[in-house]
Amino acid sequence: MSKQAYKFRLYPTRKQGVVLTRTLDLCRELYNAALQERRDAYRMVGKCINYYDQANQLPDIKDIREEYRDIHSQVLQDVLRKAHKAYEAFFARCKRGDTPGYPRFKGRNQFDSFMFPQSGFSLTHDNRICLSKVGTIKVKMHREIKGTIKTCTIKREGDSWFVVFACEVESFPLEESLEAVGIDLGLVHFATLSTGETIENPRYYRKAEKKLERLQQTLAHKKPSSTRRCKAVKQVAKAHRKVANQRKDFLHKASRQLINSYGLVVFEDLQPANMRKRPKPKQDDQGNYVPNGAAAKGGLNKSIADAGWAMFQQFCNYKAASAGREVLFVNPNFTSQACSGCGMVKKKQLSERWHSCECGTELDRDHNAALNILALGRSVQAAQAS
C-alpha cells in the first residue's frame, strides 16, 4: 500500500465561504492559544504540557466559547495535534544541533487549512462533498479517486478553496524494465539524459518575471490597509500561484514519462538549497570590500529555484516506489570534469559546454556528465546486489 493525495477545487456558496473562513480563523485562534499556554506553563511553573492535557480542555472551551461548538470535534483535535507536532519538531532540531526555530504564532495569511482526520466528511454521487457543520459543497471531480480515503483537508489558496483527500492506494508495479538512464540536471537544458536526449527548461518564472514586476510595482504604490492594496496583493499571489502550478504540472509529466520508460533512474545527490546560498563577502588586505560575484550568483540562484530540481527528484522517487522502479542518487563530485570514455579528469569552467578529451571522446558537457552518473549508478547497484 502507498499513500496518494487527490486535490480538487471546491465551489462553496457565499454563505458557505463565510463559514469556511470563520472555521479557519477559529482554528488559527485555537492553535495560537495552544502555543501560548505551553509557553506560559513552562515559563511560570516549569511544566511541559502535552497534547492530551490540551485536548481534555476542549469541552470546557466549548462551554465558554460557544462558537467552537459549530466546529467538528476532530477538527479541533487535529489543530492541537499540529501544535504538538510543532513542538516535537522544535525539540528534535535542538537535539540534532540544528537552528531550533521556536514555534511561532500564525497570522491570518499563515494558517490556510484544517483537516477532518477520520470522520465528519462524505462524498455524494452528484459531485458534492458533505462536511459536518458546514454543509454540502460542490466539488470539481476531474479524476477518479482510487483507494481508501483516510483524511480530508480543506485548504484556502487566495480566494479559492480546495479539498485534499489522502488515500491509501494499492501499488500496481509496472512491467519489469532493464533500461537504465543517468540524468544530469542543468539550466541550459532542464535535464540531459545519458541517451543524449534532453528535456528543455520551460523557465516559467523567467517568462512571468515582467508581469510579476509590474504587479509588484503596482502593489508598492498602494496605500497601506486600503481596499486597492488588498486587491493588488491578491493579484500578485495569483500570478505566483500560476507559475507554481505550471512548474508542478511540468515536473509531474516529465517524471511520469521517465519512470514509465526506465527501470533504473540515476541522479546526482544535489543540495539545491546549499547551491542557492549567497556568496560570502570578500575583503582585501586593507579591509575594504571587493566584488564577490553576488550579482551574477543572484541570477543563477533565481534560475536554480525556477527549475525545481529538488521537487523533480522527489516526484521521481515516489512514483518509482509505487511503480516498482528504482531511483539512485550518486556522489556529484567530478561528474562534469571526468571523461566518460577514459575516466581522466579535466578541469572545465562552467562556460565550457563541450567536452573534448585526448582519448577521442567528443560530446556535449552535460551528456558526458549523464554518462558518468549512469556508470556510478550501475556500480552502486552492483554493490547493493552483492
Task: Write a brief caption for the model.
The protein is α+β, with helices and mostly antiparallel strands and 386 residues long. The chain contains ten helices and 16 strands.
Structure write-up:
There is one protein chain. By secondary structure, this protein is of the alpha+beta class. It folds into two domains: 168 residues, no CATH class; 206 residues, Nucleotidyltransferase, domain 5 (2-Layer Sandwich). It has a seven-stranded antiparallel β-sheet with strand order 2-6-7-1-5-4-3. A five-stranded mixed β-sheet has the order 10-9-8-11-14. It has a two-stranded antiparallel ribbon with strand order 12-13. The longest helix is centred in the middle third of the chain and has 35 residues.
The whole-angstrom Rg is 26 Å
Q: In order across it, which strands form the biggest sheet?
A: 2-6-7-1-5-4-3
How many DSSP-defined strands?
16
Helical content class: 40-55%
CATH architecture of the largest domain: 2-Layer Sandwich
Give me the secondary-structure category: alpha+beta
CATH topology of the largest domain: Nucleotidyltransferase, domain 5
- Number of structural units classed as domains: 2
Main sheet makeup? 7 strands, antiparallel
Low-pLDDT windows of residues: none
Q: How far is the first residue's CA from the last residue's CA?
A: 28 Å
Spatial shape: globular
